[in-house]
Design goal:
3 helices; flat
Length: about 80
């Protein structure tokens, strides 16, 4: 794998994750939805972590190993030990 390509993808999908976080928070805290900022922050964080995990796994590191159990195990380690 080309290292510069990995770094570029990591940067790109990191920016996407940040965008997902900011957009989610922004939408949830609009006057129309008026979600409490703490709840909005929590939801935005959860969606961001899911986005980061999936994009890093699939597009940055191109990891397609294992089944559902492996996927859940990797997700657990990503969330709690990364």
């Amino acid at each position: 794998m080309n290292n510069s390509r990995v770094y570029l993808n990591y940067l790109l999908f990191g920016a996407l994750t940040t965008f997902v976080n900011m957009l989610t928070y922004g939408v949830l805290t609009t006057k129309a939805l008026d979600v409490d900022y703490q709840v909005a922050t929590t939801i935005a964080w959860i969606l961001s972590v899911i986005t980061a995990f999936i994009t890093n796994k699939k597009y940055v590191f191109k990891s397609n190993l294992g089944g559902k159990r492996t996927f859940l195990s990797e997700f657990f380690y990503f969330v709690f030990f990364d």
